[in-house]
């Protein structure tokens, strides 16, 4: 990020008005008239997990902690809903395996180009993704289905015809997480659709808010588990009705 004259941090979008002077991420003097961005396109910050006030007391327990939900997320301007709950574990793995997301500075290539990014792991997985999917499916086969986490897919980045975000994001994402938690404990309604369970219009608390897959699979060849190709065929049949 950039550093302001008083030693604070700043990046594009943080404030409506940029600082009059700053030092950019390349350690060069920067002003709003500069032709280069003040912060790196992939700028981010981290903080020690130990400082998280809501972290589980057992977070370093070698036995682990129970996981109630897994969220996959992609960056999509259109098509993909705000939140979708998978029908079951295998369907959740299927949803993760067909994820497509607009590229960011975290990966090489053009920024904003739509590409398949299974489980948001394409830049990070060191072996064939088809085998990676098999490992996920094997967890389901070896586990008690009642104890498996529910799987959800979120998309904070839908935009309207004017390019404005439909969802405010940031702290407001907790409204979606509230529905996720309520689905886990069985207290929230959902509408069954061809792609998964979606929240009904009144299920999300919006108080004060204004609010080609076959080609993708072919890249992994014979490594793709039959459970996922079957799920793809089922989805295509449902959408064709």
Quick recap of the structure?
With 241 residues, the chain is α+β, with helices and mostly antiparallel strands. It has helices at 89-97, 129-142, 173-184, 213-218, 226-240, and strands at residues 2-4, 9-10, 22-23, 29-30, 69-73, 83-85, 100-102, 114-116, 150-154, 191-192, 197-198. The chain contains five helices and eleven strands, in the order E-E-E-E-E-E-H-E-E-H-E-H-E-E-H-H.
Chain-wise SSE layout:
Elements: E1 2-4, E2 9-10, E3 22-23, E4 29-30, E5 69-73, E6 83-85, H1 89-97, E7 100-102, E8 114-116, H2 129-142, E9 150-154, H3 173-184, E10 191-192, E11 197-198, H4 213-218, H5 226-240
Parallel strand pairs: 5-9
Antiparallel strand pairs: 1-2, 1-3, 3-4, 6-9, 7-8, 10-11
Helix pairs in contact: 1-2, 1-5
Give structural notes.
It contains five helices and eleven strands. 18% of the residues are buried. The chain has a four-stranded antiparallel β-sheet with strand order 2-1-3-4, with no helix packed on it. It is an alpha+beta fold. It folds into two domains: 1-43, Phosphoenolpyruvate Carboxykinase, domain 2 (Beta Complex), CATH 2.170.8; 69-240, Phosphoenolpyruvate Carboxykinase, domain 3, CATH 3.90.228.20.
